[in-house]
């Protein structure tokens, strides 16, 4: 990697992406964040902003100019959007001579027949077949995602929760690994990462309710279908890769 070239981060204002940006800036890298909106008011000397729309294929090649590494954290939260964005990004990366694409994915996407997950598998395969150098990191669900599920129910008298086990991890810890991969040569598929504990979602809901001082009934939900059965079977877990350190309870204590 050319030390003077910017590292491009898509989704650099998102849950994990903004941590990746901070980590890279913190160790002296020039960083270019790709966003659909102009954020050039940020005046940090080592930070650039590039306006581009990955899904519409607008401005991507310009955003990649002069770079040789991309960390792809952007997500559209739909299968179609994710696949279209990835296809456009990887095509532009080949034209721009990008040497290394780092991709964040999800543990179990190839074992859980859930629409959003199948899109993630397709993105992984697109990258593997792209001819680009790549590193693919799969992670379990972020603490932020789990807390957000419960926060959106704050006005309800109960907390609805899927009747599954979850292994949440701090997005900041995943970002540490993504930043490390971005500064190294392409590594292909790397060992996945999971949080320190595998916890019943009902217990996570109780922990969340206690953190906000709420007395709520916890209402576990079971859904029909193969996708939920795969979650129930633990295909979203990686017990042998429980490398995260910060627990969900600690995350709730430390968050603003």
TrEMBL record:
| NAD(P)-binding domain: residues covered | 11-144
- Write down the species: Rhodococcus artemisiae
Any idea what this protein is called? NAD(P)H-binding protein
């Amino acid at each position: 990697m050319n030390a003077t070239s910017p590292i491009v981060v898509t989704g650099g204002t998102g849950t994990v992406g903004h941590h990746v940006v901070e980590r890279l800036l913190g160790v002296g890298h020039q960083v270019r964040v790709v966003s659909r909106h102009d954020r050039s008011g940020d005046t940090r000397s080592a930070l650039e902003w590039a306006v581009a729309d990955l899904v519409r294929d607008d401005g991507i090649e310009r955003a990649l100019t002069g770079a040789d590494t991309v960390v792809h954290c952007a997500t559209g939260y739909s299968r179609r959007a994710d696949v279209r964005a990835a296809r456009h990004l990887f095509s532009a990366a080949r034209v721009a001579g990008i040497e290394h694409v780092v991709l964040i994915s999800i543990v179990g996407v190839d074992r859980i027949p859930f629409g959003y997950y199948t899109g993630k598998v397709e993105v992984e395969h697109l990258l593997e077949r792209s001819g680009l150098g790549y590193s693919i990191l799969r992670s379990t669900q972020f603490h932020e995602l789990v807390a957000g599920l419960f926060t959106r129910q704050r006005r309800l008298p109960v907390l609805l929760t899927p009747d599954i086990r979850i292994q949440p991890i701090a997005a900041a810890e995943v970002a540490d690994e993504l930043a490390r991969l971005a500064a190294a040569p392409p590594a292909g598929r790397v060992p996945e990462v999971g949080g320190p504990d595998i916890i019943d979602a009902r217990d996570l809901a109780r922990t969340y309710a206690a953190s906000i001082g709420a007395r709520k009934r916890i209402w576990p939900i079971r859904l029909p279908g193969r996708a939920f059965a795969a979650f129930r079977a633990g295909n979203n877990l990686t017990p042998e890769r429980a490398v995260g350190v910060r627990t969900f309870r600690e995350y709730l204590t430390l968050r603003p």
